[in-house]
Amino acid sequence: MRTATYFFIFLNLSLAVFEEPAVYPLPFLVTSLVEVLCLLVFFGRLTHFAKVTLRSVFWKDTKNICIMVAILLSLADLAVYGVLRMYDVRSIRWSRIVRPIFLINFAESRQIRRAFRSIRNTLPEITYVFFLFMFSLLMFSLMALKLFGERNLQTAEGLPYFKNYLEIVFDLYVLVTTANSPDVMMPAFDFSSWYALFFIAFVIVNTYIFMSLFLAVVYNNYKKHLKVMFGGVNCD
């Protein structure tokens, strides 16, 4: 039973690869039949569990309610999408986001729920570091607006450079990942090489200091909650 449940959960999650827009597209009839089959298996598994569980206990378990709601939402979305497709009306399968619910909430996924619960318990404790990082990002963005906003600089595409505050926040946020480095600083660097110091300082503070601190806080808190969950077992 456990192997069959895992197989159909994997099959249901894998449908995203074959549904439009898809990496390997299959006809809608094929993917919809496979999804209905998976949902029937999930419903049968839930029904089987309800037969061997007291009714009061079964309906008090939020995991069972989540699975039932996910099945109903998936069937409703599949039916609506199929009808709209018959009339050549373009739409999206919004119920795809509920598919991981099956992976988390079945009784066989106890270890996944533990990991998920540890992540959930860790999130409130890292908000302070996140707010500090966002404060630093906003302050650097404000400095960038004051430094470059009045220079009438342009990007390589001929667009205004660092004129809009929200666009500056987004560009510097991407710079934290170094994905747009050094392109984002080239208009300022071409105007004066001294402006490179601003971007160097930004990368040192936000990429190397804040991201390392953020990772350390996430790791330590996750390990702490995992130890509590497993009764003090060493999780290193």
From TrEMBL:
Residues 1-16 form the signal peptide. It comes from the Eukaryota. InterPro entries: Ion_trans_dom. This is TPC2 protein. It holds the Pfam family Ion_trans. Gene3D superfamilies: 1.10.287.70. The chain crosses the membrane at residues 26-44, 65-84, 126-145, 165-182, 194-219. One of its GO terms (cellular component) is membrane. Keywords: Membrane, Signal, Transmembrane, Transmembrane helix. It is found in: Membrane. One of its GO terms (molecular function) is monoatomic ion channel activity. Residues 6-224 form the Ion transport domain. Its main location: membrane. It comes from Sagittarius serpentarius (Secretary bird). It is a multi-pass membrane protein.
